[in-house]
Design goal:
about 160 residues, mainly alpha, 2 domains, 8 helices, elongated
Length: about 160
Amino acid sequence: MRRRLVRAARIAALPILLLASFAAVAFGETRAPVANRSINTKETALQRIQRSVARINQEAATPEGEAIVLQRLSSQLRVTPDVLRSQHDTWAIGYGEVAMVYGFARAARKQPTTPESVVEQRRMGRDWDVIAKDLGVKIDTVASRIKRQEPPKRRK
């Protein structure tokens, strides 16, 4: 008896489900499954900075590239190439990171900041977002400044 009731309920529910699905399609109430929805993958300013840093470091990987990077950073940051090379070696970071440190130090609005203090904060394990907030730095500003220090794009 119970099986018959369950079977009858299933049979009765089938036309209702079909009708509901047809009505949804007819009235434009369809939705893509969650897995098929596009995800907003807009790149953040910090990700743009990190991409620029990687490009600068990649260019500086060869001796010729290092000389070019040092010359470009020196003219843009108004620091001698010897100072930049010394900081690169002392801080044990790439030239892209050196540019990033200078970008954060010079964009600081809340307090006068040196590149050395920014490096020290990173060594204490602080994230760039936290450092930017403490210094009153807009990460977009640093991203645009770092972008200028990237190697020029090659034409194909």
